[in-house]
Amino acid sequence: MQYFVVIARQRSFSQAAALVGVAQPALSQQMKRLEKELGVVLIDRSSRPIALTEAGAAFHARAERMLAEASLAVDDMREFAGAGRGQLVVGSLPALASLWLPAVLGRFQSLHPGVRIVVREKNTEELARLVGLGEVDLAILHAVPGLRAGDASYRGIVMERLFEEELVVIVAPDHRLAAETHVALAALRTERFVLLAKGSGLAHTVMTAIAADGFRADVSTECTSMPTLRALVSAGLGVSIIPRLPAEAPGPAVAVVTLRPALPRHATAVACRGDSRPSAPTEALLGVIREHVARSLAGGP
């Protein structure tokens, strides 16, 4: 049943086999046995990607509920001993994974050494999708209005805002604006921009703000990580707008210029599925995250 659910989610035998760690022929045999036992065809193998039959769709809905209940039963037992053991898959934006998340996970690991942690670094849109599919237990991403599409995989996600950051301009050390203390967004009309690739919450926020200011950004370069973005800006490929934390963190040399008037502060959130009870390790990590944020806002270490 677990194998069938993964196939139903992925719509691919090969992708499902890779996820569950079983050879594709063995997985196909398991599905044939399941169909023989149930007396119905669950999967239409003639289509590409594969599709569920009417019976398969009905069985998928029931199987998801049954497996969720079984998981809850296991989690309830683990709660007798706290977070216990097991694996926790944490999604994070790459910049936060290197600058913010390590302290949180270090604290969590000291409290729950038996839990194995897997960190997956993606952009905001992809993290939201993975949470919706149940492939990560929780994700640290940007809370960006209007970014998420009406994809079914996003349904049931709940977000809890953690903190907000000021957005600043970064330019190469020898750029004409490098010596300025502040700059208006309109002063960047003639500049070329370096931005994170499509699906980034930050890029969405920046492009929305630029459009609201009445001009269209000349995006000359896109990349997928904050260190690369800073390196490109430092090399003179363009300017960018990023949160102050990564702007002032160690890395390629850039000048940081304050925006006046300021753009809306960029919000970071933790996302989980809202249609099922979080596992004991997930609940434990959420507690550590909230504690860390509260301590940071109070000016603690």
Keywords:
301 residues; single chain; 43% helix; five-stranded mixed sheet; four-stranded mixed sheet; 3 domains; D-Maltodextrin-Binding Protein, domain 2; Arc Repressor Mutant, subunit A
Describe the 3D structure.
This protein has 3 domains: 2-77, Orthogonal Bundle (Arc Repressor Mutant, subunit A), CATH 1.10.10; 82-164 and 267-297, 3-Layer(aba) Sandwich (D-Maltodextrin-Binding Protein, domain 2), CATH 3.40.190.10; 167-264, Periplasmic binding protein-like II (D-Maltodextrin-Binding Protein, domain 2, 3-Layer(aba) Sandwich), CATH 3.40.190.10. The chain contains 11 helices and 13 strands. The chain has helices at residues 2-10, 13-20, 24-38, 54-78, 94-99, 101-111, 124-133, 201-212, 226-234, 244-248, 280-297; strands at 43-44, 51-52, 86-92, 115-121, 138-142, 157-165, 167-171, 182-183, 192-196, 218-223, 240-243, 255-259, 266-273. Strand 1 (43-44) and strand 2 (51-52) form a beta hairpin. Helix 1 (2-10) packs across helix 4 (54-78).
